[in-house]
Design brief:
3 helices, mainly alpha
Length: 69
């Protein structure tokens, strides 16, 4: 998931296309959904929350790009 998230973040920063807003949001939602259903041992649940927060960080990057477009 982190690899896909990093790829999406790079895409937003370097190749942002306002016409792809719905696609970007859909990809972020899919990554968040995937993270939310990860089955990890109890000792690693904090890492899932961290992952989901990173998804939200990229979502905020998208929000800023959209506002300035």
């Amino acid at each position: 998931i982190y690899g896909e998230l990093k790829f999406l973040e790079d895409d937003l920063k370097n190749h942002f296309d306002p016409a792809k807003l719905a696609e970007y949001r859909s990809r972020l939602d899919a990554l968040d959904d995937e993270a939310s259903v990860l089955h990890v041992p109890l000792g690693f649940t904090d890492l899932v929350y961290t992952l989901r927060e990173h998804v939200n960080l990229v979502r905020r990057i998208l929000d800023k790009k959209e506002a300035s477009a």
